[in-house]
Amino acid sequence: MMNKYPEKITNTEELEELLSRPSKEVIELLKHLDGDIIFLGIAGKIGPSLASMVKRACDLAGVKKRIYGVSRFREADEQQHIENLGIETIKGDLLDRNFLEFLPRVKNVFFLAGMKFGSENNLSLTWAMNALLPAMVADHFKDSRIVAYSTGCVYPLVPQESGGSLETDTPLPIGEYAQSCLGRERMFEYGSTRYGTSTAIIRLNYAVEPRYGVLVDIAQKVKNNQPVDLTMGYFNAIWQGDANNAVVRALGHATSPAWVLNITGEEILSVKAVAQAFGMIFGKTPQFTGHEAPTALLSNSGKAFALFGKPKVQIEQVIKWTAHWMQEDHKLLGKPTHFEVRDGKY
Questions:
Q1: Lowest-confidence range among 14-18, 76-80, 143-147, 283-287?
Q2: pTM summary value
Q3: Do residues 255 and 199 touch, judged by C-beta distance below 8 A?
Q4: Which domain range does residue 120 map to?
Q5: Average pLDDT rounded to a whole number, residues 159-176
Q6: Is residue 278 part of a domain?
């Protein structure tokens, strides 16, 4: 298994290998984990690399498990790509109760389904995906272990000097999207308490790689000579491969009542400084609009670092990878994070 990281990522295959590269701790976890594994909502930005990491870890650990990936698979090639990773796919709508009840009740569940982009345009569906579905999943998989993705958006905006919100802080979600995400957490907490389901809730903020994320959003503005909004002047970010490793390892810490974990990077990053770093690489002078507000959406991941160690890939490296990826005109996912939003309306 490779341990070193390249100076540049030259193609999608190399990128996906890096994103799904399991740590020795993940391999050890899968070696001793009982039961099969299912990924609900596998076809999003994170699901393929997370599932691939689990499959690779199982192979390296020498254990055989059935690994399922569930999604509507709206794009024709999505399902084939997942199957090529060695994952058994199941196509259907998770909000269809008959379909959900058809799913095998395996021991280990990763819940990735949810709605963010365009959530303001269809608030009822947003609540259905982010709160109703988790209640249904918590019931169907009550005898399983569940790792459920949530978001740092459930926290209020906090001063940069605070170091970011802690898991023990009271959630104060801004806007209906964030409120629905807290609803998701509460439904998994309810299921965990009612049924004794071992559950870990992951407040992720933000995972990045060269095809999407806050770094890509900023880099595109700089590269295209568009102004970068400084109003949300600071943010957290973590290399998605490091986030994946932490999320898989969280499965081994799932408890009842449900357990909450922030996952993000070490630093509080400046939007302006990151834009200037891309400007140096691109040979551009970044343009800015607005001024840094005294607060931002920030999380403190000290609890995760104490458990799993700090991220292995530094953000400076991801900036270089992202800049090269864009200079080579490789494919982007076209899914902006809307990190600039301060009123919760995504």
A1: 76-80
A2: 0.96
A3: yes
A4: 12-210+236-268+297-314
A5: 96
A6: no
Residues 310, 266 contacting (CB under 8 angstroms): yes
- List, for residues 12-32, the tens digit of each pLDDT value: 999 999 999 999 999 999 999
Q: Is 326 helix (H, G, I), strand (E, B) or coil?
A: helix
In a domain, 120, yes or no: yes
Q: In DSSP terms, which residues pair with 209 in a beta bridge? A: 212
Asked whether residue 319 is assigned to any structural domain, the reply reads: no
| 331 in a structural domain | no
CB neighbourhood size of 64 (10 A): 9
Give the number of domains in the chain. Answer: 1
Q: What is the pLDDT of residue 304?
A: 98
Q: Which CATH number covers residue 43?
A: 3.40.50.720
Q: What confidence tens digit (pLDDT) does each residue in 99-148 have?
A: 999 999 999 999 999 987 667 788 999 999 999 999 999 999 999 999 99
Look at residues 76, 26, 12, 20 and name the one whose alpha carbon lies nearest to residue 51. 20
Distance CA 208, CA 239 (A): 5
* Nearest CA among 13, 9, 11, 34 for reference residue 251: 34
Task: Pull the structure tokens for residue 16.
Answer: 């996906």
